[in-house]
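Q: Sequence in, structure out?
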Amino acid sequence: MPTARLHLDPAFRVGTVDRRLFGSFVEHMGRSVYTGVFEPDHPRADADGFRTDVLDLVRELGVTTVRYPGGNFVSHYRWEDGVGPVEERPTRLDLAWRSIESNAFGLGEFMAWAAKAGVEPMMALNLGTRGVPEAVALLEYANHPGGTARSELRRSHGAEDPYGIRLWCLGNELDGPWQMGHKTAHEYGRLAAETARAMKRFDPGLELVACGSSNAHIDTFASWEATVLEHTYEFVDYISLHGYYEPQDGDTDSFLASAAEMDRMIDAVVATADHVGAKLRDPKKIKLSFDEWNVWYQSRFGGEDSLEWRTAPELIEDVYDVTDAVVVGSLLITLLRHADRVGAACQAQLANVIAPIMTRPGGPAWRQTVFHPFALTARHARGRVLRVEPESPVVETARHGAVPALWATATHDEETGELALFAVNRDRTAPLTLTAGLRPFPGSHVVEHLLLADDDPAAVNTAEQPDRVVPRPVAGTRVSDDALTVELPPASWTLVRLATS
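A: Exactly. Output:
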């Protein structure tokens, strides 16, 4: 059996786990909002129309931050349409997803939902078809205590206290020609800088995210970030990254190694940001917000032009299998391995649209396979991320070349003493024996060993079989002679929790 080795030592650290790494995304797209998180006529809807079965799953998932209201949707969105008495709100055409938007769910509903879900809002601004005045107007409406026209308007809408939103996205994917209000890097950088300057004048403590590239394959990648940051470096705290992953031409080996692409993208954006900082002689380090990531079978989507004008259509409702869950687990490992620079991340999206949670209108809600690695990582990745450099056999892939079969990271919570080891075996044919040295953690013992794998890698969860694929406990895993030995089946995701003295 092939073997891999790594060593865990509290002296070698990457950074602290930022809880914002476990964010998600709710966009007015498909059934993400309507019949996803919001369905007033559902048997389990509360007085505000929120599905309580979905709220329960969101809390179980461990989501910390939710980006709203888009996504492509935000670049043609008028926030004013979604506030005030619902019966007075206009119905609009959403050009991004060719949908009919009732605006029954807007800012006030989202903030009420976020409070019940226990998540921090990440509010996206429309810098596609709107600009500085509209952004500042929304900020005043949301965050000013009272005594001005817009803050008093919020209070008249039932929100006596300000929302206190701290984290704001300065637009969405404006490098993309598909975006309403698509701009050059210079055009966007100037607008983002002026918007950020005005917002920081309102409140210097706001945290702002500048738009990075929509993907790593677009022609302007890296040059876009360089130009945008030259305009905005003084004002912003984050630059965004977006990445979606799927198998191409049946190439499962490359798909299982998707985290290699995410890893390279993060390194490239860090290098670009640091180059701009050096050029500007600014000692500040820009953080990264990987605020859209997931497995997405884009090859199954016919594009926006294929859509008909409908209200809350079934749109991009990918059903995830075991292999998809392993890939999601590996992407989470990559985010943790960059915890020194990645300060926020949002899996896109939360419900129904390429989501860990699926619902039926009027019916049940259930966990997709990808729910489980996210929930367990969010629950147990705490404290410091340890610098883990595995020795591993490699897997040859067509898209990424030779990649380590083992992809792993570990966290150490100094308060509780718990170690959490997260590991993926990317090899879909051969098991792997992992030995983890624990000499700096004397007296360590295994608390729990969970495995996500299946003899049928295409197995999925459905409303009828919601627990077909779940992590299962593995018995008998021990620490011996200051080393942990773990068997990793082919194409698997593993969590081992250890108690330390």
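The mean pLDDT is 97.
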